[in-house]
TrEMBL record:
Signal peptide: none
Keyword Transcription: yes
InterPro entries from the UniProt entry: LysR-type_TF_proteobact-type (IPR058163), LysR_HTH_N (IPR000847), LysR_subst-bd (IPR005119), WH-like_DNA-bd_sf (IPR036388), WH_DNA-bd_sf (IPR036390)
Protein name in the entry: Transcriptional regulator
Pfam families: HTH_1 (PF00126), LysR_substrate (PF03466)
Alphabetic keyword roster: DNA-binding, Transcription, Transcription regulation
Organism annotation: Thalassotalea eurytherma
Top-rank taxon, per record: Bacteria
Database matches in CDD domains: PBP2_CrgA_like
Residue span(s) of domain HTH lysR-type: 10-59
Assigned protein family: Belongs to the LysR transcriptional regulatory family.
Length: 292
């Protein structure tokens, strides 16, 4: 059985391109990973990894070896998961990164319900707009909005987020009702991420550069500023649902609202995903499947 020692560590290094990242993924020390891989190479009589000060890459022998053993590791993971699924509880810590109004008002309550189902599970939610490195920061998965730039991550669509433009009745009484997106150039606009807003005009996308009186990367602050009459806001509908129902905000420019983008669950391409992470991701996808 000693011939299997180091294979898991080697696979983790191959997938993360580094000993430190592999150690964080496996929850052990960097020295342990390095030692196990070195012993594996010694037993095989071949160098599997090319090491440099900045990057660790696979040698030709290493690439061939990884291709062979990864299927064995997947089989081992599936066997372990089959046993775990027969248990009635999840344990350990689930670490989630998210930000924004959707995370606070919808994602967090969903994870509270999930946590209540598994009392031995610890859930940590980091509500931070910083773009975290999931592997280095030890995050199991994150909620990302819009276009995804990191192709190394696996992404599963959580929800679609169509847009809505709103303003308070007080603001509209003072400044008037805009009838077309181009009229926003003469209005105070509340900017969350960018001052170029995309609308659907006659079936075509049209970008309008707006004048921003208030800027914040926090959707709740944009919502508060809008209800106080500071200007026009244009964000996902879910941000404004309650305020519109209470007549605190009035929808405007409805024929021109854009389709917006989507929210995604993203996570590292790990061969050994803990059962608690897999179950949580599946739960959230199912939870929001019929979300409006």
């Amino acid at each position: 059985m000693n011939s299997f020692d180091g294979i898991i560590e080697f696979a983790a290094v191959a997938e993360t391109n580094g000993f430190s990242a592999a150690a964080k993924q496996l929850g052990c020390s960097t020295s342990h990973v390095s030692r196990q891989v070195a012993r594996l190479e010694e037993r095989l009589g071949s160098s599997l990894l090319a090491r440099s000060t900045r990057l660790v890459t696979l040698t030709d022998h290493g690439a061939n070896y990884y291709h062979q053993v990864k299927e064995l590791l997947i089989g081992l993971e599936q066997a372990n998961e089959l046993v775990n699924q027969q248990q009635t509880h999840l344990t350990g810590t689930l670490k989630v990164s998210a930000a924004g109004g959707f995370a606070e008002h919808f994602l967090a309550p969903a994870l509270m319900e999930f946590s209540a189902m598994y009392p031995e599970l610890t859930v940590e939610i980091d509500l931070n707009s910083r773009l975290v490195n999931l592997i280095e920061d030890g995050v199991d998965f994150a909620i990302r909005y819009g276009e995804l730039s990191d192709s190394s991550l696996i992404a599963r669509k959580l929800i679609s987020r169509p847009l809505m433009a709103v303003a308070s009745p007080l603001y509209l009484d003072q400044k008037g009702m805009p009838k077309h997106p181009v009229h926003l150039k003469h209005h105070n606009c509340l900017v969350a991420n960018k001052d170029i807003w995309e609308f659907d005009v006659d079936g075509k996308k049209e970008n309008i550069k707006v004048n921003s009186r208030w800027k914040s990367n926090n959707a709740n602050l944009i919502l508060e500023a809008c209800t106080r009459g500071l200007g026009v806001a244009y964000m996902p509908k879910s941000t404004f649902t309650e305020a519109v129902e209470k007549k605190l905000l009035t929808p405007i420019l409805e024929p021109y609202w854009g389709q917006g983008t989507s929210s995604w669950i993203v996570y590292p391409n790990k061969r050994f995903m803990p059962l608690r992470v897999r179950v949580a991701i599946d739960y959230l996808v199912d939870y929001f499947a019929k979300w409006q």
